[in-house]
Design goal:
Elements: E1 3-7, H1 24-34, E2 41-43, H2 49-52, H3 58-67, E3 74-75, E4 81-82, H4 86-105, E5 111-114, H5 136-148, E6 153-157, H6 164-170, E7 176-183, E8 202-207, H7 212-231, E9 235-240, H8 257-274, E10 279-283, H9 289-304
Parallel strand pairs: 1-2, 1-5, 5-10, 6-7, 6-9, 7-8, 9-10
Antiparallel strand pairs: 3-4
Length: about 300
């Protein structure tokens, strides 16, 4: 078994206003950088309504649908904008995450990197925010549990911003562990260590600006990785944000490609121990496009071993 990529050209059609950091070039640079690896790329399907409704209300879905303009943009907040093709891209991003779960559960592949946009980990049950419209990784986790009959899954989020949306969507589900390292203080202002979920199933490890390699790896080694090991998940999901890179303009965690490679290898070891190596990784942030592309390559190379 090997690693495959899920993506779709529709995800290049979600266009934010000029100057917005979540730009089309993010995905273009990623796909160009991954091309030399020779991995199969599978088209992301549109997510099914029943999968969306596992985490979002019907009113939330209708609100996104109603916001789609004929031209230009509809702004849901200062950061989150809808263009004519945004909904389709967002449905592909969520559908790609679900498809990735189906592929690893069928033993078609061991790991999948979902190279789609818009990202998802800031979207709450009723609230799109932080460039996000649907909770992609939470949708995938619920699909794994409900459709494939798993009893325990884990989500690890190493994006520099706290995945408030994912936490909102899973903290009340005793089958899901959510563990996050993130810079604090920083948008969205959530992710304090005392936030532990309804079933002690949330592990937040906030790190200071400039934390760097040692603090990040210590947080993973002492907090996140042991929590995942104790959880013994039957499937491991990753919210793979690369905006903790030292070149990223939106934060200051001071990591580099080697850190992303290291944490991916450590997570893969836990997947090999508990879940037959099954890993689904979904793209989240990363806004210096060169650093993003090189970081994704390091991540995917570590995924495939």
């Amino acid at each position: 078994m090997t690693t495959k990529i899920i993506s779709h050209k529709d995800c290049l059609k979600h266009i934010n206003p000029p100057g917005h950091p979540e730009q089309v070039a993010r995905l273009e640079y990623i796909l160009d950088a991954l091309a030399p690896l020779g991995l199969d790329i599978v088209d992301a399907p549109l997510v099914a309504d029943d999968d969306l409704l596992r985490v979002h209300s019907q009113s939330h879905i209708r609100a996104i649908q109603a916001a789609v303009p004929v031209s230009g943009w509809t702004s849901l907040d200062n950061d989150t904008h809808v263009c004519p093709d945004t909904l389709t891209a967002a449905l592909r991003a969520a559908g790609g995450a679900v498809q990735a779960v189906d592929m690893v559960m069928a033993d078609e592949v061991q790991s999948v990197f979902v190279a789609t946009r818009p990202p998802g980990h800031h979207c709450e049950r009723e609230t799109p925010m932080g460039f996000c419209f649907f909770g992609n990784v939470a949708i995938a986790a619920k699909h794994a549990l409900d459709h494939h009959g798993l009893s325990r899954v884990a989500i690890v989020d190493f994006d520099v911003h706290h995945g408030n949306g994912t936490q909102d969507l899973v903290e009340g589900d005793e089958r899901i562990l959510f563990a996050s390292t993130h810079q604090m203080p920083l948008y969205p202002g959530t992710g304090h260590a005392h936030e532990t979920g309804g079933y002690e199933n949330v592990v937040n490890v906030p790190l200071m600006e400039g934390a760097g390699t040692v603090a990040f790896r210590t947080a993973m080694t002492e907090k996140v990785l042991p929590a995942v090991d104790r959880w013994a998940p039957e499937l491991l999901l990753i919210s793979a944000g690369f905006d903790a890179h030292k070149a990223d303009p939106l934060a200051g965690m001071e990591l580099d490609e080697m850190d992303f490679s290291w944490v991916t290898k450590e997570l893969r070891k836990l997947a090999e121990k508990h879940s037959n190596g099954r890993v689904v990784s979904c793209l989240e942030g990363g806004y210096d496009i060169n650093a993003l592309a090189s970081s994704v390559v390091s991540h995917v190379e570590a995924l495939r071993g």
